[in-house]
């Protein structure tokens, strides 16, 4: 294995949830009377913590309205929207290959809330795949590197033994701030040229390709 610890983003990297996030945020914007968010605008903020995403999506929004938007988004994502959110092809099999190595450690670093990530862990029965996880509401949002620092400390792994894998510049810049290796996947949110600016050590167009590369 190239790394002892492999840290994965969630939305757009492991789970194909981008379409659902977009439609739920658009519905929430309509609910509070803000108007229709453009698809590209919503895609751009995927990966950030929800407060940071709302602040970027709605410049100048007041706290009360921001809280209303957050609540409506949460409602639509959990209850009101039935857009499927499957794992990307090869994710379950690929992570099983990584877990087969006793020395390997897998973790999640996500802009989701702890409540949201734990719900998906339960619904997908996949929480046991990972040795640790961090969410944006229990530490700093991406691209600040604190969640990576906390994962390294919790798992007792040096930065040079770890890699961050994600589909946004927020994932890659978070790792870059620590001098951690980073891998881009191009099937998620941000365009390949945008990801390339963060100088990933590898770029994968599909998850199985990533797994093959991690098995150096």
UniProtKB/TrEMBL annotation:
The keyword Hydrolase applies. Pfam families: HAD_2 (PF13419). SUPFAM superfamilies: HAD-like (SSF56784). GO terms for biological process: DNA repair. Gene3D superfamilies: HAD superfamily/HAD-like (3.40.50.1000), Putative phosphatase, domain 2 (1.10.150.240). NCBIfam families: HAD-SF-IA-v1, HAD-SF-IA-v3. This is HAD family hydrolase.
